[in-house]
Amino acid sequence: MTDEESHTLLVSEPKLNETLWKRNPAFYHKIHLSVLYATIFTLLCLFFLSDSRTSKCDLFAHNTPLWDLVEYETVVFLDNIHELSPFQGPPDDVKDEIWDKLYRNTSTTVIDSKRAKRLPNSTMVAPGTQGDGIVSLENALRKSLYPERFPDYSVFFPNGTRNQNISIHHARASDHCVDRIRQATMCDANIGASFWRWNEHLGKWGINMRTTQTCRNFEKMRLWAVERNLLDWDPKVPSRLTDE
């Protein structure tokens, strides 16, 4: 091909496209509009998705001073029947220690004024804010199952009969523990899936309770609370609320 022929092809190519455009302009307009609408729709979807996620994060951030510390990890739940956790079984010194360690020195946490003012409810200004961890409630219920070791926690006698002489305060405390756990369970609403498997021994399908879940890193939050725990303060000392 000569240089003159090559030049002719390069020059005539735009003219060919221009000719096609003139022959069917409506078709090209439809293509341009379709691309434009698709782009706008995609951008709107990304905007609303981002706004929705941000709103949810902002909502949680105002409900807890720990939101920016939350991180997630994968945890395998045991079935707690064939596989027992270290927390299960009759109480002894070792089990009592690992249960108590879960919430020891975490009940009264001091936070800075900026975090405190972001909370949905006002609380007391220094010396601290009072909390009641769910784990301590679970441990109280665990202790109530073993009256021979924890007589002060049980509403039953060691022989299994109900203690009718228990104080109203103690009975209400146990009821309080149960319902606080109920509220926490409904609030968290675990959406992890359980699976069915064939049980050869029983000859039927059964739920496999050994499942993989996505959980908040409890140890990280526990250490945060321990570092900010306030000891030996007098709750009778006058103070004021954070919104005053």
TrEMBL record:
Q: Does the keyword DNA repair apply?
A: no
Q: Which UniProt keywords apply?
A: Membrane, Transmembrane, Transmembrane helix
Segments spanning the bilayer are 31-49
Tell me, what is an example of a GO biological process annotation in this record?
mycotoxin biosynthetic process
Q: Does the keyword Isomerase apply?
A: no
Matching entries from PANTHER family are given as: CYCLOCHLOROTINE BIOSYNTHESIS PROTEIN O, YALI0B05434P
Family designation: Belongs to the ustYa family.
**What is the designated name of this protein?**
Tat pathway signal sequence
- Identify the species of origin: Akanthomyces lecanii RCEF 1005
